[in-house]
């Protein structure tokens, strides 16, 4: 296990180095363009060259890259052009907001999807299986912007129970966070439910489950002790890999409800051309992607002993 974890960690580090170098080359190889973004389109060449000299852009490319990586590792991502403040002061609060949104989503989605998936997979082809399967497909087929519009029309404009935005200007509010979480759960639980259902149905037809039932072991014990652990291998991988989607893939929900999260920050930076914020957000998104893959691989080997030492 330690060897496997070391290999995965080295692979993760290599990916981060490649991505960071590519990112730096794309955004900062043209020094004058960087100066133009920072100083504005009306700055002249002399002003741009002076700014480059003051900020160390006349150093060799590799030296600038190493310095940039060192600063990023200490949390110094530069100065935001749009927000007129250090990138870290903007990035970490937005990342925390998205972490709250993702945590609440996971809190409700995981037990819901696993319970429904196990119930459907226990009796493949039954009425409960068909109801759960059809419901999962329907909820997953509806995009976030459509469900957000539909539920806003009901809970905000018709019933008047909830606010239409989630800006959290007065601090955390359950009323404001409800709709974004609800929309994400309605969209995301269906895929995990179907994966759990398929995995559970496959496990229930295996020989060791039939043998356990024929031996007279109580059905509940067969499910809880023998079937459930093997059925959770595939859903576990899917759930962990959703972390990357929750970080930058919820832009639609964050923009729709004016929620100040990581995805909205990345979108605003891309539209404004705030290159230092884009670089920081990209690095964080890639790190979460490779780290979630690392956790997925390690967790998969723990759940499946047959590949523990491969």
UniProtKB/TrEMBL annotation:
UniProt entry tagged with the keyword Transcription: no
UniProt keywords, alphabetically: Cell membrane, Membrane, Transmembrane, Transmembrane helix, Transport
Cited InterPro entries: MetI-like, MetI-like_sf
Annotated ABC transmembrane type-1 domain residues: 95-296
Principal localisation: membrane
Topology of this chain in the membrane: Multi-pass membrane protein
Highest taxon of the lineage: Bacteria
Gene3D superfamilies: MetI-like
Record's signal peptide: none
Positions of transmembrane segments: 9-27, 99-119, 131-159, 171-190, 231-259, 271-291
Pfam families found in the cross-reference section: BPD_transp_1
Cellular compartment(s): Cell membrane
Family to which this protein belongs: Belongs to the binding-protein-dependent transport system permease family.
Name under which the protein is recorded: ABC transporter permease
């Amino acid at each position: 296990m330690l060897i496997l974890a070391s290999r995965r960690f080295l692979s993760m580090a290599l990916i981060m180095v490649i991505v960071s170098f590519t990112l730096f080359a794309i955004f900062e190889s043209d020094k004058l363009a960087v100066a133009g973004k920072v100083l504005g389109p009306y700055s002249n060449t002399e002003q741009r060259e002076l700014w480059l000299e003051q900020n160390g852009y006349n150093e060799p490319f590799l030296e600038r890259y190493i310095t940039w990586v060192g600063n990023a590792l200490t949390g110094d991502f530069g100065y935001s052009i749009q927000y007129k403040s250090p990138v870290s002061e903007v990035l970490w609060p937005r990342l925390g907001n998205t972490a709250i949104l993702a945590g609440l989503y996971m809190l409700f989605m995981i037990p819901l999807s696993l319970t429904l998936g196990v119930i459907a997979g226990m009796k493949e082809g039954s009425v409960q299986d068909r109801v759960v399967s059809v419901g999962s497909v329907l909820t997953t087929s509806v995009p976030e912007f459509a469900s957000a519009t539909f539920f806003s029309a009901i809970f905000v404009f018709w019933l008047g129970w909830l606010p239409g935005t989630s800006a959290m200007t007065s601090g955390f509010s359950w009323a404001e966070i409800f709709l974004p979480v609800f929309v994400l759960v309605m969209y995301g639980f269906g895929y995990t439910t179907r994966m759990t259902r398929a995995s559970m149905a496959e496990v229930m037809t295996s020989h060791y489950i039939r043998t356990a039932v024929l031996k007279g072991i109580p059905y509940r014990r067969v499910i809880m002790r023998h079937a459930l652990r093997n059925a959770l291998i595939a859903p576990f991988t899917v759930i962990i890999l959703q972390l990357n989607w929750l970080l930058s893939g919820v832009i639609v929900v964050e923009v729709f409800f004016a929620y100040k999260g990581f995805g909205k920050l990345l979108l605003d930076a891309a539209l404004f051309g705030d290159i230092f914020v884009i670089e920081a957000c990209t690095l964080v998104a890639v790190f979460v992607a490779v780290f979630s893959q690392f956790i997925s691989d390690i967790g998969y080997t723990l759940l499946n002993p047959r590949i523990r030492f491969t």
